[in-house]
Design goal:
The structure is a single chain. With 336 residues, this protein is an alpha/beta fold. The chain has 2 domains: 170 residues, Isopropylmalate Dehydrogenase (3-Layer(aba) Sandwich); 153 residues, Isopropylmalate Dehydrogenase (3-Layer(aba) Sandwich), CATH 3.40.718.10. It is built from 12 helices and 12 strands. It has a 7-stranded mixed β-sheet, with helices on both faces. Strands 6-7-10-8-9 form a 5-stranded mixed β-sheet, with helices on both faces. Strand 6 and strand 7 form a beta hairpin. It is globular.
Length: 336
């Protein structure tokens, strides 16, 4: 399996990206990595970090797309950027397992859409990160930022794609699908949410109704359907709250000698909580509905996060996720 990796995407690139690739090669037997970026810099980093060069191919790309650039313009004009060259390589070799980048979210989404294209019948691709729940399960939040202005038909299709994802990737027979709203009553929400509610009720999925944001990580849901605006606010609120809680706990432990002793007694339990709340452990967010596996890693991804993102590509490729989504959308279109 060959995975294309944007070596210069992300705040900590290229070092952390290359270290993540090294971890992936050490843990995934049948993996080859195609690293795209400034060849001299990449080669030096590989040498400095004792990476297995026999399973790595370097493709030179002199330029880098930054977060401050307009995505469409950058994709069209920076043709020698690590992101554009990566996507062109993937387009030229559709048999490759997929692509990972921690670069500009807007540029990754735009580039994937323009270069790789949507699966036929997909109205809009959706960015769908995976979060841990309090019951130690997983919940997929779809969409979290690819589409700022969605309609009820988009949300219905997000539900279908989320249902396929959780069944194929995590083996959940009947994923519990909830619709993000301002209350759990059937009539709550704006006009789009109310219309989406009716569509989801009529679909052959396990739709369990509306949910409030405070129950997103309760473990009562496997898929949370929302538009990109509300979804992005939700995930950033979750990340911000998690970071704040960890700081509050740390400050409380360091308050005095007695609290420090208590902290030592709770050390293992607190480490378990920290690990569960660390987004690095969950890789990136797949862009679902595109004609290949594309993973958008967090901009501040470290080596472990990059490794997990590559592992996601391998997992999704092995279960044939793109084809499963394609077949389901085709079936829905025939039934309309």
């Amino acid at each position: 399996m060959k995975v294309v990796v944007d070596a210069f995407g992300g705040d900590k690139a290229p070092k952390e990206v290359i270290l993540g690739c090294k971890q992936a090669l050490e843990n995934i037997d049948d993996l080859e990595i195609i690293l795209v970026g400034q060849e001299d810099v990449v080669r030096q980093q590989l040498t400095d970090n004792n990476c297995p060069l026999d399973r790595i191919t370097i493709i030179d790309a002199k330029d880098v797309i930054t977060n401050n650039e307009a995505p469409v313009e950058a994709i069209k004009t920076k043709t020698d950027s690590s992101l554009v060259v990566s996507l062109n390589e993937l387009k030229a070799h559709p048999e490759y397992a997929g692509f990972v980048s921690a670069g500009s979210t807007g540029a990754v989404l735009t580039g994937a859409f323009l270069k790789l294209g949507r699966i036929k019948g997909v109205l809009r691709p959706a960015l769908a990160p995976i979060f841990p729940t309090i019951t130690k399960g997983k919940v997929l939040i779809i969409d979290c930022g690819a589409n700022m202005d969605s309609n009820e038909k988009n949300l219905a299709q997000f539900a279908r794609i989320g249902d396929i994802f959780m069944r194929e990737v995590y083996g959940i027979e009947k994923p519990r699908i909830g619709l993000l709203s301002v209350g759990d009553e059937d009539k709550k929400g704006n006009e789009m949410t109310k219309k989406a509610f009716q569509l989801l009720k009529e679909m052959d999925i396990n739709f369990v109704g509306n949910l409030e944001a405070r129950y997103a990580l309760s473990g009562d849901y496997d898929v949370i359907v929302t538009d990109g605006f509300a979804g992005n606010v939700l995930i950033k609120s979750i990340e911000g709250t998690a970071a704040m809680m960890m700081k509050l706990i740390k400050n409380a432990i360091n308050k005095n000698t007695k609290s420090k002793i208590g902290g030592l007694l709770l050390k293992n339990s607190l480490m378990d909580v920290k690990t569960m709340m660390d987004y690095h452990a969950y890789g990136g967010a797949p862009l679902l509905g595109i004609n290949n596996v594309v993973i958008k890693s967090h901009g501040s991804s470290n080596a472990y996060s990059i490794y997990q993102s590559i592992n996601q590509v391998v997992t999704f490729y092995k279960v044939g996720l793109v084809d499963k989504i394609r077949n389901a959308i085709l079936k829905d279109d025939k039934n309309v």
